Protein 1
Amino acid sequence: MSTYRIAPSILSADFTRLGEEVVSVVQAGADMIHIDVMDNHYVPNLTFGPLVCKALRPLTALPLDVHLMATPVDDLIKNFAREGANIISFHPEATDHVDRTIQLIQDFGCQAGLVLNPSTPVNHLDWTLEKIDMVLVMSVNPGFGGQQFLEGTLDKVKLVREMIRKSGREVALQVDGGINVENIRSVASAGGDTFVAGSAIFGANSYSQIIGEMRER
Ligand code: DX5
Ligand code: ZN
């Protein structure tokens, strides 16, 4: 896949003006909106529920990309899909029946993504890559925005890119955590095609300038 996509994570947005923030990154050239769902159980932080997805849905036609860091996931998937999510990703450790959960997401007409934490082995893709629409490689441990990019995860991105190539399927490779203007090129060289960025985008003065610079790199 040669099209690169930038996915601002609203985790780093100004929550007092969440709607405006989303409209601003859309106008600035975002390709999708990344929604980090945390449950204070799977990860030690608490963020958005389906109501936030519902509130944002009328603001943009761009895909709403829901990253579930929660367990269990199946009921959440139904609720986010009903509120307009387009892509739903989950961690294999967060559900007992990964294949069934992938199917559930796709039955709701959404694209399904499987998330690999820094320590999660890539063999979770062995019997799932033939079915999923996206792999999300975490380049930080999930739970918080603004963490430092873990360089070691670039090897995993390369490995996953190779697995996708061998599968012959069109599967997106999203990378999430600590991505900025300085390192986005190395993530792309390793094989990433979809780049989540929270603090790097929402911490910038000009969203269009930062998204433009990221795309250029
Ligand atoms: C981390 C989240 C990321 C995070 C990215 O658990 O999944 O999406 O918001 O934020 P930055 O770009 O600040 O690392
Ligand atoms: Zn995320």
Note: Residues 9, 11-12, 34, 36, 67, 140, 142-147, 176-179, 196-200 surround D-xylitol-5-phosphate (ligand 1) (CB under 6 Å).
Protein 2
Amino acid sequence: MVEIPDSHPRKKSLLSRQKIVEGNDKGLLAESAMIAHGRGEAFDYLLGERTTESAESAIRESVARLRAANNPVISVNGNTVLLAGKKALRLAAFLRCPIEVNLYYRTPERVSGLLSLLEKQRILVLEEPEPSGFEGDWQESVRNVTLLGSSPDFRIEGLEGPRSHCTEEGIGNADSILVPLEDGDRCEALVNLGKEVIVVDLNPLSRSAKMATVTIVDEVSRAFEGMLAELIADSNRVPTDWDNASALRDSLVEIAEFLSKS
Ligand code: ATP
């Protein structure tokens, strides 16, 4: 790994880029993953690489909804596992829900590679201090997070080919799905199945951002961090009558305000 000095103003962004490059070298990503990451970087620049106020409200709403759900699931792709896999595991331990590796360009090799990486990340999470405010046995909760995706036995209606495959235990049975960096078609198909879809996407103009029930316009690692903080704060917030189109407009205003000051 190339050493990036602490003083480098773009250190965080470069480290993320490095994780994606290394994941790609290990065969964990589809070819388009780097393009998706680059698009995300561009929008993050426009957002000022920070969690905006509208993203904070979306984070609070998402946590309230995932807590209220009967069968929540976290659906992850390669970029998410590489950038925020440990945080996804912590979220899943808090929410006591499974994580499903669900790839648009699914191959058995990539799914099993990402599941192995999540198992390694689980060991790292177990070695780290437990978060304050967690009720119950943290270690057991982390160990109990079910990792799904290797044996798809369910199809998302309205989609064709491998991108429609998922597991019944995870996405099939879920009433609420947290899905970062999702593709617009799949997001739409999940919404059409009557599921609540919580998307994390830096691009407030993407089809997924527009189709989702709640969109967190933020970088996935920062968004998960914010969700963990909300879970730790244990605010007992209840879901509201969320207006996602209005929240997306707020994020565009925040971009415009940031640009006008730059
Ligand atoms: P859509 O079909 O929804 O219009 P798209 O074709 O624009 O999506 P994809 O390539 O399917 O995009 O998915 C990548 C999306 O993920 C982009 O909108 C990009 O902004 C976003 N993205 C990339 N990296 C990150 C990240 N680290 N955190 C959050 N969002 C990200």
Note: The chain has a mean pLDDT of 95.
